[in-house]
Amino acid sequence: xxxxxLEDADAIxxxxxxxxxxxxxxxxxxxxxxxxxxxxxxxxxxxxGKGFRAVHNIPEHAPVLLCVSRIDYQKNQLLLVDAxxxxxxxxxxxxxxxxxxxxxxxxxxxxxxxINDLGLNDHVTIVEGQPAGSQELVNAFHAADVFSLxxxxxxxxxxxxxxxxxxxxxxxxxxGGIPSFTENERNILHADPSDTNTFVxxxxxxxxxxxxxxxxxxxxxxxxxxxxxxxxxASRLESIYQDVRR
Length: 246
Prior knowledge:
single chain, alpha/beta, six-stranded parallel sheet, two-stranded parallel ribbon
C-alpha cells in the first residue's frame, strides 16, 4: 500500500536529504523534494535557565551537558554517560541532563544502572516525558552550556535546530541527515556515535574554550534563523503544493 502511494504521488517530500536522495534514485522520474524540519526561533531565544537549575537542584556554577531526545537505544544516551565518567576527571562539577519521553523502558533501566555503576548519580538528571510545547524544554536549553546528540541513526535532528536557536554549541553524530544541514567545525562538531572518545574530545574542546564554543554557537544560531525558521520552511512547502496543483 505504501508503495502505491509513492508511485501515484505527484511529488514526494522528504525531511532528510539522504532520504531524498534514496527516494529519488528509486523513483528517478518523480519530483522528490527535500523540505527540512524547522524551528520557532523566537520561542527558543529566551528561557529561564537559572529556574531550571533550581528546580532540579543543579548548582549554578556547574557546567551542564544537555541531551534532548527519546530515551531509546537509537538515541544512544549511554555514550554520554560513559563520556561523562571521563569528563568529570577534568570538570568535576559537570552535570548531564537527559530529557525526553521513555520509548524503551528496558533502555531507561540500563541507562540508570550504568549511571549508578559509574557513581554518577549526583552528576545526572533525567527529565522524562516533556511535551514539545513545554516551557520546561526551552528552559533546559538555557540552563545548558553544551548540547549533544549521540544518535546511532538520525534522519534529521530537529533538536539541533532548537539548540542553535537557544544559542548553544552542539556536538552530534556525523551520520544520517545531520551532515546535510550542519557544517563540521563551523556550526557544530561532528563525532562518531560508535566511539566515545570522539565525543569526549569534542565536548572537552567546547568546555575548555569559551571563545570557540561561543563562535560555534553564534554560527548555529544565525543558520537557524536564516534557513530554518518555520516561516521559511512553510513558505517552501506552500510553493511545492502550488506547483503540484498547476
